[in-house]
């Protein structure tokens, strides 16, 4: 799933780099735990490329869109369960044990997927991986946060998010590396076992987080770790601060047990905070970000690029831009403000989705014709084309929509936009077409607008990543009153996973039912609604002290002039 980056300014990053010689132990803790983020990102990206080759090996997956969606989305269903159970495991057994258990689940899933003999076993492996991803998504940043010096905590926690986007980028490189290897997708999915094993070995040699040890009354162990993390002159002050913080946390958690849903919704500040926080998370997913990350090679093929390798290579661009955008967000989140950045981001996403809608619609309208003469050169003619009342009106798009059996388009040898042949979609047709130096299409059609689709995808990532990729996470960390922060944060996280699951499970079905162009148009309409939602329901929390956020939410929650800086909490907005 697409994540956000916690706040950290550039001075914190410079101090973080200085740790490499001042206190490398802290960096060792952060990088070791951050491998969980790398695994998270790798799984998000690797399935997009592996799916191209899974379809080639398992014909049932190629024919049934719901199976492709199931292979992607069952990991998300597992992640929802893993995140829910992970919270309890983190508190009961500790952050370190939770990370090791997440790695064990990920390792098990990677082995099952690599050895899968049918789609059902592959889906079981995806569930195990999802459980590990969900657990790691909570445990890794929590461990880094609690085992980092205060001054560089934001920078070190953001390392986990950098590794998520870095893992996505790495997955595309790995996918490209194995395109020529026997058992392509098995290597792509199985290689994830390596970082999982590395992290297990590293975590066994590292301590538990000092905050968790203090919560369990193991003060001496916690103090010993703090002495390794902080310079001698700061240790006593940090020990006292940690003790006071844990005492307050325990007191808050005891009072939070009395919270019920009705009380939550009757509290004005909490209710408005949930509108803003959960709403942002819903719009983050429903503008289609994870369809781009999970299905980007497929989208590239829909744009008219037939080769699996070409689709993976071009998809590498979106992954690289996503990583670059996550770095930009650190600079802009405090300089520009959360609300303004979200609005700029959504506006750019609308433009990008409009370009994608027009591009794919033009590709559909101007797809190459099917030639009866070209088709007659082959002995695997599509049955629907042979029995058609008016075959002269058939285009490539008509050919790809044939369903009994499914058919593919063999492009003309010299110019792909010239009329081609409509053949049964199987390995024989694919080989015959390829042997004649033609391109074989089963997902999209040859198009002169393909590069416009790539520009649209790139614009989408450029605008989304620094804004809507980060703002929902930052706002959710700031907007809830302290005594309700745990439960409200949990509700917002669950909203992300469920929304992600819905969108990922339905994307390919939508492209088949209404077409790729109209699917992107739907995402664009959601983004437009999101702009109005942000203007009406999301307050600007930039520069607002935590204790004043609650007062701000109790006032009117509408601020149409979002570009104007608020002078005081009491001012209406």
In DSSP terms, counting alpha (H) and pi (I) runs of 4 or more, how many helices? 26
C-alpha geometry = globular
Averaged pLDDT, please?
81
Distance between the termini: 33 Å
Radius of gyration: 26 Å
Main pleated sheet: 3 strands, antiparallel
Helix fraction by DSSP (H/I, runs of at least 4): over 70%
Helix and strand pattern: HHHHHHHHHHHHHHHHHHHHEEHEHHHHH
How many strands appear in the DSSP assignment? 3
What portion of residues belong to β-strands?
Answer: under 5%
Across the major sheet, the strand order is 2-1-3
From the helix content, strand content and strand pairing, which structural class follows? Answer: mainly alpha
- Low-confidence spans: 1-8, 568-573
Written overview of the protein:
Helix content is 73%, strand content 2%. With 573 residues, it is mainly alpha-helical. A three-stranded antiparallel beta sheet has the order 2-1-3. Helix 1 (10-22) packs across helix 2, helix 6 (119-146) packs antiparallel against helix 7 (153-177) and helix 17 packs antiparallel against helix 25 (516-537). The radius of gyration is 26 Å and the shape is globular.
How is this fold's topology laid out?
Layout: H1 10-22, H2 24-57, H3 59-63, H4 65-93, H5 95-114, H6 119-146, H7 153-177, H8 184-190, H9 193-204, H10 210-215, H11 219-229, H12 232-256, H13 261-266, H14 268-286, H15 289-302, H16 308-336, H17 338-365, H18 372-375, H19 383-386, H20 396-400, E1 407-410, E2 421-424, H21 427-435, E3 440-441, H22 450-464, H23 471-478, H24 485-514, H25 516-537, H26 546-554
Antiparallel strand pairs: 1-2, 1-3
Helix pairs in contact: 1-2, 1-7, 2-6, 2-7, 2-8, 2-9, 2-15, 2-16, 4-5, 4-6, 4-24, 5-6, 5-8, 5-9, 6-7, 7-16, 14-23, 14-24, 14-25, 14-26, 15-16, 16-17, 16-22, 17-22, 17-23, 17-25, 24-25
């Amino acid at each position: 799933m697409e994540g956000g980056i916690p706040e950290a300014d550039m001075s914190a990053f410079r101090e973080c780099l200085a740790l490499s010689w001042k206190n490398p132990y802290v960096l060792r803790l952060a990088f070791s735990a951050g491998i969980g983020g790398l695994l998270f990102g790798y799984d998000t990206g690797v399935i997009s490329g592996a799916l191209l080759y899974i379809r080639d090996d398992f014909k049932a997956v190629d024919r049934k869109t719901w199976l492709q969606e199931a292979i992607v989305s069952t990991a998300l269903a597992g992640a929802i369960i893993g995140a829910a159970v992970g919270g309890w495991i983190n508190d009961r057994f500790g952050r370190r044990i939770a990370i090791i258990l997440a790695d064990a689940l990920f390792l098990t899933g990677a082995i099952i997927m690599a050895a899968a003999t049918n789609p059902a076993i592959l889906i079981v492996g995806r569930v195990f991986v999802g459980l590990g991803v969900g657990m790691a998504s909570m445990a890794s940043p929590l461990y880094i946060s609690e085992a980092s010096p205060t001054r560089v905590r934001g920078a070190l926690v953001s390392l986990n998010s950098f590794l998520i986007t870095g893992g996505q980028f790495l997955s595309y490189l790995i996918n490209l590396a194995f395109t020529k290897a026997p058992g392509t997708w098995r290597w792509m999915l199985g290689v994830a076992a390596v970082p999982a094993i590395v992290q297990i070995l590293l975590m066994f040699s590292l301590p538990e987080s000092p905050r968790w040890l203090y919560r369990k009354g193991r003060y001496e162990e916690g103090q010993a770790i703090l002495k390794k993390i902080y310079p001698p002159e700061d240790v006593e002050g940090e020990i006292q601060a940690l003790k006071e913080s844990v005492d307050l946390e325990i007191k808050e958690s005891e009072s939070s047990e009395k919270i019920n849903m009705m009380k939550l919704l009757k509290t004005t500040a909490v209710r408005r905070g949930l509108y803003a926080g959960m709403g942002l998370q819903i719009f983050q997913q429903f503008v289609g970000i994870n369809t781009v990350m999970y299905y980007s090679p497929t989208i590239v093929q829909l744009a008219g690029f037939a080769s699996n390798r070409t689709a993976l290579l071009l998809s590498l661009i979106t992954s690289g831009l996503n990583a670059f955008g996550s770095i930009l967000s650190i600079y802009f989140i405090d300089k520009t403000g959360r609300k303004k950045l979200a609005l700029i981001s959504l506006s750019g996403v609308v433009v990008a989705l409009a370009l994608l809608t027009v591009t794919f619609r033009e590709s559909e309208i101007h797809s190459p014709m099917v030639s009866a003469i070209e088709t007659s050169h082959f002995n695997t003619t599509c049955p629907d084309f042979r029995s058609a009342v008016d075959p002269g009106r058939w285009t490539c798009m008509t050919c790809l929509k044939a369903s009994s059996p499914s058919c593919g388009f063999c492009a003309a040898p010299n110019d792909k936009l010239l009329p081609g042949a409509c053949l049964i979609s199987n390995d024989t047709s694919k080989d015959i077409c390829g042997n004649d130096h033609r391109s074989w299409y089963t997902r999209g059609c040859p198009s002169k607008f393909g590069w416009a689709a790539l520009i649209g995808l790139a614009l989408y990532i450029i605008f989304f990543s620094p804004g809507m990729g980060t703002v929902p996470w930052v706002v959710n960390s700031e907007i809830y009153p302290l005594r309700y922060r745990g439960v409200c944060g949990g509700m917002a996280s669950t909203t992300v996973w469920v929304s992600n699951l819905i969108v990922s499970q339905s994307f390919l079905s939508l492209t088949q039912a209404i077409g790729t162009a109209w699917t992107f148009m739907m995402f664009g309409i959601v983004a437009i609604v999101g702009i109005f939602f942000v203007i009406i329901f999301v307050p600007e929390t930039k520069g607002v002290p935590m204790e004043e956020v609650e007062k701000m939410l109790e006032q009117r929650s509408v601020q149409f002039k979002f570009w104007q800086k608020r002078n005081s909490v009491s001012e209406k907005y």
